[in-house]
Structure formats: C-alpha cells, structure tokens
Amino acid sequence: MSERERDIPNDLVAETRRIWDEKAAFWDEQMGEGNAFARELIGPSVARLLAPRAGDLVLDIGCGNGVISRQIARLGARVIATDFSPRLLELAKARSADFGDQIDYRLLDATDEAALLALGEGRFEGIASSMAMMDMPAIDPLLRAGRRLLRRDGRFVFAIQHPAFNSNAVSLCAESTVLPDGREVERYSVRIFDYLDVPAGRATGMTDEPEPHWYFHRPLHELFGACFAAGFVIDGLEEPRFSGQGGAPRDALSWRNFDGIPPVLVVRIVPKVDGS
Fold first, then answer.
1. Strand pairing of 264-271 and 232-238?
2. 181 to each of 14, 66, 177, 184, how far by Cα in Å?
3. Quick one: pLDDT band at residue 11, thresholds 50, 70, 90?
4. How far is CA 269 from CA 123, 141, 203, 234, 262, in A?
5. What is the pLDDT of residues 195-220, one digit of tens each?
6. Both ends of the chain: CA-CA distance in Å?
7. Dist. CA 130–CA 71, nearest whole Å
8. What CA–CA distance (Å, rounded) separates 149 from 93?
9. Distance between CA 247 and CA 251 in Å, rounded?
10. What values do phi and psi take at 52, rounded to 5?
11. Which of 109, 116, 111 is nearest to 89 (CA)?
C-alpha cells in the first residue's frame, strides 16, 4: 500500500458510500445511457481496449447505473456488475431489465480483497472499471484480486480522470488573445497547481450535483506502480479527447473546447507472464 493510501482514514469507504447512495437518483437521471464523456470518450476507448467477445465473462467494477455493463453486454459478453452503493444498483437493475440474466448486478466493495476473490479465481476473461478507481480510497486490493480473478489471457481495462490534466489541483482557463493580424481569438488552457502531492478531497463531477464526493488522486508513477506490484504489465493506453466542437459562450470552460488536452486516461493491463 502506498504512503498516500496509508494516510487515508478507514471510515472514508463508508462516507463515500453514503454520498453515492444519497445522490444516486440525481446521477442516474443526469447520466442516463451515458453523458458526453461516457458516449464519446470512455465508452469507445473501453470497447477497443477490452475487445469483449461473445460468451466472455466480464467483471465491471464500480458499475454505477450500469452504462458500461450494458455496453459490454451489447457486444455479446456476460457481465457481473458490482458497486458498493445499494441505491445505484437498484437504478442499474431498473435500466437493464431487457438484458435478463446477461448482467448480474451484485453489491460489493471493491476495496475488500476477500470479497472480490470470492467471485472466483481465474474465472474472468475481462475486468472493466469506468471512472471509479479515482473514487476509491485504496486500489491495491482491487489490483491484487484482479490479477487472480483473470484468466491467464485476460485483460483489465480502467478509465479514470487523467491524473496530469484533470484533478482537484487543476482549473480550466479561457482567455482572449489578439493575433498579429488583429483577430481576437479564445485560447483554452489548463492550469496545474500540483500534480505529485494532491491530497484526497471532495469535488463535484456534474453541474448542480447535490453533494461533492471524494476524489483520490494518484500520479502516474503511483498508479502504474500499483499495477506492476500486483503482477500486471501495460499493453494498451488511450488518451481520448473531444473533437473541439465547443458550446455556447456560457460553456467556455467545457472540456469540448480543450481539444488538445485529454481529460480521461484509459489503460489496459494484462497479467505478467514469466519472462515478460
């Protein structure tokens, strides 16, 4: 466990569960079958890197209202979808009625290594986790268990806020600049106040969210170091970005305007084999 995770109070899992239970209905209403981030950035990257095949068994960690679980199921895989919020699971099940037993929703805390391993070692062709690991106070238990849950040729794909460009120590900026030819243009930039030592803190993920939730920042060396320590190697990585189709002036600080900066990081890790 990293020093950062040792410093996080044990009761934060319970607090984060309470927050997500209380705002589950708001999140489900806003997310639906996927907001812009899910539809345009995360979903396509996860599908490419996970590449689920018909009949595969995939574990979805932190499934929320089931957006990624349903996407994976539409590609033909069977899904065991887990979340630690009972209320989010209720909403996910309601949205997934048409999938029958192709998606099996289960209440599970992904920081509980024993509970994860009880799902069955060597059982899964794939594991997916979409925008959940940065909400977890500890990821080492998940990575250690994930290594054992996967088949030898399995893959684990996770999507998170890009640690370098999208954290509690970042602000989005829009500035008017006059070019040499006299034209005035808007320039968009990301101001980074810290990267290596961003403490755990609360922030909102959507406009008008009723309560901020906890984010647990991990710089890349710490994030990938945890993957390596658990017995994984990285063999795929994408940094999806929006296409630059900005919104109205009031949306100047929308990520759509930052077409040269990726707000999301999607990574595929696979079990390390002897000699690799």
1. antiparallel
2. 58, 51, 11, 9
3. confident
4. 17, 16, 28, 4, 20
5. 999 999 999 988 888 999 999 999 99
6. 24
7. 12
8. 24
9. 5
10. -65, 140
11. 109
Q: Which amino acid is located at 221 in the chain?
A: H
Cα–Cα distance for residue pair 147/149, rounded to 1 Å: 6
Identify residue 42 by its one-letter amino acid code.
Answer: I
How far apart are the C-alpha atoms of 233 and 80, rounded to whole Å?
24
Burial of 35 (0-12, 13-18, 19+ CB in 10 A): middle
Task: Report the DSSP beta bridge partners of residue 155.
Answer: 126
Rounded Cα gap, residues 42 and 131, in angstroms: 9
Cβ atoms of residues 148 and 15 within 8 Å: no
Residues in contact with 63: Cβ distance below 8 Å, sequence separation at least 6, in sequence order: 69, 81, 82, 83, 88, 89, 92, 105, 130
Structure tokens at 174: 């829009």
Q: What does the alpha-carbon distance between residue 64 and residue 106 come to, in Å, rounded to a whole number?
A: 11
- Residue owning tokens 């020093």: 3
Distance CA(159)–CA(264), nearest Å, equals: 7
R_g (Cα) of the chain, nearest Å: 19
252, two tokens: 């100047």
Rounded distance, CA 6 to CA 67, Å?
32
| pLDDT tens figures, 141-188 | 999 999 999 999 999 999 999 999 999 999 999 888 888 888 888 888
Do residues 65 and 35 lie in contact, with contact meaning Cβ atoms separated by under 8 Å?
A: no
